Amino acid sequence: MTKAPSFEKFAHERGAEDTALGLALDRIMSLEEYDRRGEHAWPYTYTLTAGSSTLYYFGSQHPGNDPTHPEYALIEAAFAQANPEMVLVEGMRITGDTDAFESNIRSLSRDEVITTYATAGYVLWLALHKGIGWHSPEPDDADLYEHLLTLFQPDELFAWYVLHIIPQYHRDTHAGGGGFAAYVADFIQTFAAATQWKGFEYSLDHALDVAATIVGETIDVESTQGADAWTDPVPHESEERPRTVLNRISRIVIERRDRKIVRDIAAALGDYARLFVVYGGSHAVVEEPALRALLSDTR
Question: What does the domain layout of the chain look like in residue ranges?
Answer without folding.
Answer: 7-139+261-297, 141-252
